[in-house]
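Request: Have a read of the protein record below and say how the chain folds.
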Amino acid sequence: MNQRQSIQRITRLGILIAIIFLMTFVPNLGYIQTGLLSITTIHIPVIIGSAILGPVGGLVLGTTWGITSFLKVLSMPSTIETAIFLNPMVSIFPRILVGLIISYTTIGLGKLIKNKDLKYALVAAVGTLSNTVLVLSAMFVFAQGGVLSFNQAFSVIITVIISTNGLLELISAVILVPIIIRAISKVIPQS
C-alpha cells in the first residue's frame, strides 16, 4: 500500500469514526428511542466501513461503536437499557466482534459472490444478525449478576423487543448498505 492509499484509508476511517460519534450523541440519529429499548441505525456506517476498510478498519470501528455506546449509557437517565448496557461486556465486547465478523464475511463472500449488491446485502444481514445475537448472548451471560437481575418473564420480554428491533435493523441495513456502498464507489474508487 502506497502513502496515498494509506492516507485515504486513515481519512475514511476518521470520517466514519466521526459519523459514529455524531450518530451516538445526536438524539434519535444512531439510536432511535422507542420507549423501552432503542432501535439502532448506527450499525449501518459500521457495516459499510468494516466492509470497505477490512479487518483493521472493522476492529477500529467496532471498538469505537462499543465505546461510544457505553459512553452514551453513562450519560442517560436510569432505564432498563442503561442497566443492560452499563456492563462493558454487553456494550463494548460484542461490537468489537461485529466489526471483525463483517470484515471477514466481506472477504469470504468476495471470493464466492461477484454481484456486489448481493454481497453487500448479505454482509449487512450477517453484520446486523451478529450484533443482535452477540448482544443478546452477552446480555444473558454477563448481565445476570449485574445491575439488573433477569427472571424468566422479563427475559422473554427483552428478547422479543430486541428481536423485533433487530428485524427492523436487519431490513434497513440490507436495503441501505448496498445502495450506500454503490454510491460511495462511484465517488471514491475502492483501493
Notes: The first helix runs from residue 3 to 25. The beta strands are 31-33, 38-40.
